[in-house]
Amino acid sequence: MRAVLFSNGEVPDPLRMRSVLQVDDTIVSADGGIRHLLALGRDPHILIGDMDSIDPHLLSSLEEKGTEILRYPPAKDETDLELAINILQERGFNEVLIVGALGGRMDQTLANVWLLAERSNTAFDISFDDGCERVYLVQNILAVSGQRGDLISLIPYAAPVTGITTDGLEYPLHNETLFPEKTRGLSNVLLANQARITIKTGKLLCIHRRIIAS
Q1: How many CB atoms lie within 10 A of CB 46?
Q2: Phi, psi (rounded to 5 degrees) for 12
Q3: What is the C-alpha to C-alpha distance for residues 158 and 156, in angstroms, rounded to an integer?
Q4: Nearest-CA neighbor of 97 among 16, 194, 28, 19?
Q5: Which of 6, 40, 72, 199 has the largest CB neighbor count within 10 A?
Q6: Which tops the pLDDT comparison, 15 or 88?
Q7: Which residues does 192 contact at the CB level (< 8 Å), separation at least 6?
Q8: Looking at the predicted structure, is the pLDDT value of residue 120 above 70?
Q9: Which of 201, 161, 151, 207 is nearest to 181 (CA)?
Q10: Confidence grade of residue 214 (pLDDT, cut at 50, 70, 90)
Q11: Between helices 80-90 and 106-119, what is the axis angle to 10°?
């Protein structure tokens, strides 16, 4: 099961996000992420959060249409996005694509990236996308699809990542180690429509920046 979870960050290319929605997706909004869904003309199946960013009339309208609303108090230890991720994981979703978790406030963007790194495992596939960039966690092996010229950055999370081997990138790695305090993995280039990345140990963030035609 796949859920597409809309958060309240930036979405610089909303039209691309419309194209990634699939018929069987469960569409979820973390509170203020509803603004992105409204721009796409879609209603969420589930709305989660303290509702401090939503007009009460809109809330009533969504409830009448059948949206499941899970309301939490404003004074809480988790952000609305973290709550939503927890709930989707508990409900057995095996894939969650998060839209609008990047950009805007730096503190929230960094915290969201750490959520990605800490929550991913082989049974729970989670990634971020804002239309221009997609952020993955490499778990043993990752295939990245795009177009020639897209930028691929590989960033170790918290500790060195060993045994990194890439195929399909301009600057290949062969069973090498990247370190979080070094910038060697930044701004590699996709040579064709797909690249493959494998690792042996550690947590490796992959940031795929699409080249948007002007």
Answers
A1: 19
A2: -70, -20
A3: 6
A4: 28
A5: 6
A6: 88
A7: 148, 168
A8: no
A9: 161
A10: very low
A11: 20
Q: Which of helix, strand or coil describes residue 10?
A: coil
Q: Which amino acid is at 162?
A: T
Tell me the per-residue pLDDT of 55-64, one tens digit each, with 9 for 90 and over: 889 999 999 9
**CATH numbers and ranges of domains, the chain:** 2-131 (3.40.50.10240), 138-209 (2.60.120.320)
pLDDT digits 0-9 by tens, 135-184: 999 989 999 999 999 999 999 998 999 999 999 999 999 999 999 999 99
